[in-house]
Each structure stands twice: as C-alpha cells, then as structure tokens.
Amino acid sequence: MSTRWLDWAKRIQALSQSGLAFSKDIYDIERYEEFRKISVEIMAAYTDLDMNKIEGLFTNETGYQTPKVDVRGVVFKDGQLLMVKENIDDKWALPGGFCDIGLSPSENVVKEIKEESGYDVIPVKLIAILDKNKHPHPPEPYHYYKIFILCEIIGGESAVGPETNQVEFFSENNLPPLSTNRNTESQIKTMFEFFREPEKETIFE
Q: Which domain holds residue 116?
C-alpha cells in the first residue's frame, strides 16, 4: 500500500504541476517550482531513484495532472492464464502497458497482447478497474488506474516481443515470480475467480 510520504510527494507534485499550468504571476510560478523541487527531494530521500531522474520525470509532465492508465490483458487457455516474462525485471506479468493516445482501452489491450505474446485476441469483458494505490504494489512517483480486460484467442502463436523474453500459460496454483509493479498475486487470483465465475460483476475501486 502507498505510504504517507509517497502520498504527500504525489499531492505536492500534482498541485505544483497544476499551478505551473495555470499561473501567470512570476512569483507564483517560482513558488510552484519550489513545491515541485520539494516533491522530488521527498521521492529521492525515500526511494532508490536518482534525484535527477525523478526531476526529469516530473518536469516532463505539463498541464493538469490526472492518473495514468495501464491496461492488462486476461487470457485463459485450458484453464491456465497467459503471462509474459518482462525484460525489465525478468519477472512475470499479464501482457499490457500504458494506454496509447488515440486508442481505446480495448484496442490498446489487443495491441499489447499481440506485441508481447504473439497472440491475436478479441476483448470480451471488462473485468476490473483498480486504483493502484489500493493494492500492494511497490511505491511509484505517479498515480495509476489499472484496467483488466478479459480476451479470447482467435489466432497467432506464442512469440516474444521487444519488451518480453518468454511467453507461458500458468495455473492458479503454480504462479511464477510476479512483476509486482505490474500485477500482484491478489490481482492474479482475482482473474482466476472470473474464469470460474464468468458472470461475476466487474470490479471497480
């Protein structure tokens, strides 16, 4: 779960970014820039991230700050769940990633599954929209909403992509080491609940 220092840093960053987007007074701009610097210092003090890297992430953000959107594909085959091994940490996740501008969530998930696993799919049900802060992910600078979409395979074959190095299907009782920045064990267990209960209502929190 998010810790209080991380909540404070995110809130200060969001307020400073909004202030910089709408302020015209030079003195107000200086104050908001100082607020942003404080949020960077908090993040650097409590994480392993380099201060220059954090500052780069924050200063690249402009306009009114809103949560980022991450989409994940949920694909079952013979009762097992499709997962991909991520190059970035050599751990496993549901195929997916940030939503691209110009594509709907369902279009994004179809694209991500194809790129990361090689399979062609069609989206069939929105399973969940989750606030990342309400789940035990590692601390991050940004606020995310995670969208999980159930999909069915209609073609293609297993193939790794630029960001993945392995593609496999796993049973609920034989899960691999998870990339917890992308998905948690409790979230994966929830996906299997939807496999067992197809009429289960969409979760949103």
A: 68-204
